[in-house]
Each structure stands twice: as C-alpha cells, then as structure tokens.
Hints:
It contains eight helices and 15 strands. The strands form three sheets. Strands 1-2-3-15-7-4 form a six-stranded mixed sheet. A six-stranded mixed sheet has the order 5-6-9-8-10-14. It has helices at about 15-20, 50-60, 130-135, 140-150, 175-185, 190, 205-215, 240-245; strands at about 1-5, 10-15, 25-30, 65-70, 80, 95-100, 105-110, 115-120, 125-130, 160, 170-175, 190-195, 200-205, 225, 250-255.
Amino acid sequence: MYKTNWSSLSVLQFDIFRKEKQLKHCVTTKEGWKTGTMPRFSVSEEHPWKEYRKELAKALHICIDQIYFPKQTHSDIIVSVNSETKREQIGESDALVSNVPGICLAVQTADCVPILLFDPVKNVVAAVHSGWKGTVSKLLTKTIDRMKQEYGCEAENIRAGIGPSIHKHSYEVGDDVIRRVMEVFPNYEALLSPSVRDGKAFFDLWEANRSQLLESGVLPENMEVMGMCSFGLDQLFYSARRDGFETGRMVSCIMLN
C-alpha cells in the first residue's frame, strides 16, 4: 500500500496496481476534500453531491463524465459499462466491469469492502462494493465469472485489491448473518469468531472475500489486502457503524488509461 496526494486529496494505492502503466486507480480518504467534510456520490452528475464528483475528477485528471458509480443497494447485480452506457442508465447495482479505456469505475464505501480487479492480459477492470449481503451472495465470485464469460478473462491473470473496510474485531453480527455465512462458506469457522454476547459473532469480511478470490482461481500472489480498518482509523476513514449512515464515503476507483 502506498499513500500519496493527487491535487488536494490524500489517496491510497495498491502496490499490485501501481506499476501498471495502462492503469489508474486510487482509494480516497478523509483528507484533503475542499468541498466539505462528508463526501458522497450519486449515479447522476446533477445532484447536490456533484461538487464532490468534480473534485474527484480533478484529482484523477479526467473529465467528470468519465466517472461511473453504481446505485448501490447491497445487491448481487453487475453492470458491464461500455462507450454507449449512460451513467443514469446504470441503476441499482453493486459492481461495474469494463474494457473501455477512459471509463473510470468507482464504488463508495464507509465500512463495506471495496474490491478493485484488473486483468492485464485482456485489459479489463472492475469495481465491487461488498457489504455482508454482497459477500454472502458471492458478488465478487459473480463479478469474476462475468469477466471470464463476457471478456474472456482467465482467473490466474486477474489481480485483486481489497481496500479499507471494517475489521472483524469491530464487526459483530447477529444470527441472521451467522446463518447465511454458515450456509454459503464451507470455511465458515475461519470467518466467524465467537462473541461474549449470546447469538453474536465477529465476521471477517476481508477473509470471506479473499476466499472467493481463491475459489475463483485468482492466485494468492495476485491479491492485496490493505488491512486498514475503517472503524478503527477514525482520522483517516469514514465509518457508518461508528458515525452513522449519513457520514461521508471513501471512493475506490479504477480506469484503463
């Protein structure tokens, strides 16, 4: 992981992506926003939050209409974005995939897991927003399947970065989540740690998504987990669980140059 400044924004980058000349990516933090202290983003540019989009575009040295956000609803819906795709047409979804240079795919998070994917052979990128619902619905697995089926990607070529999100020590869940994890993941014992409270456990979102990468055939050496907790690092990241749903958001974005 590498921290740097783009324009006024303080951003993080994955080591596995930084040396790729055909790629641009970053994860924003709390630091450097001039528009306000609670950055939020919408699918459409015409929104009260559009000034944040403009500031992000400036930091990326791209035009505002190059940035595509899904309308995140904790679904398992994936949208393929091409040169004909209108941003307002994307609708409810939680993962975007593209092979078109100049299209910046972005997701916003404040505890959920942002995952960026890149196939340097087929030149395909993806951005995934995976909270507990997306994780137990195996959204990441389905996104990789889309990359394989639609773009001809092979798992061993895909590189994956798991960004800042809530660590298991701060993520206590109830019976409903525990049951779903046990139903979906054969290695659920490695993902759930007991809590002192009855009917509760701590859920490891990082490892649950890393497990999906491994199951999909992504090589361990092509994965990077930033290992930074959005809940615990309050000076650097926003956290919905810590601060409430209306808090700001981090952006994780990726684009083919």
